[in-house]
Amino acid sequence: MNDTLIESAQRYDIIDIINKGLAYAIIVAGLLSVIFIFVGGISFILSGGKEDKIKQAVSTIRYAIIGLIVTVLSVVIVGTVGRVIGLDIIKYINFSDIVENITNIPGTSSGSNSLD
């Protein structure tokens, strides 16, 4: 069991792990921002004209949009800084690569590696 985990860990170098971690964090932040925009919109629709609920919904939408802007700016900044120091994070922001990495995680039922 430990041999499989060690072999799996040895396949990735530290730069690869940093690249993938940053790419996944950016994707999650973007998805959460979009989800909160929808949640704020639904809250606004369901507010029933109550001013305190409208303010809360507008605030949720406002902060979600700010989060989305920060996420987009982080992609630009991390991509630029990454090129300067040798990290190519943009190539890891690919949905098919993410699905492939998730399915290749040891110990998952759909993974090709097993811990048996």
List the helices and strands and how they pair.
Layout: H1 2-10, H2 14-45, H3 51-85, H4 95-103
Helix pairs in contact: 2-3
How would you explain this protein's 3D organization?
The chain has helices at 2-10, 14-45, 51-85, 95-103. It has 116 residues and is mostly helical. The chain has one domain. Helix 2 runs antiparallel to helix 3. It is elongated and about 55 Å long.
Q: Which runs of at least 5 residues are low in confidence (pLDDT < 50)?
A: 111-116
Sheet having the most strands: none
Strand composition percent: under 5%
DSSP summary: helix tally: 4
Which key features would you list for this structure?
116 residues; mainly alpha; 4 helices
Quick summary of this structure?
The chain has 116 residues and is mainly α.
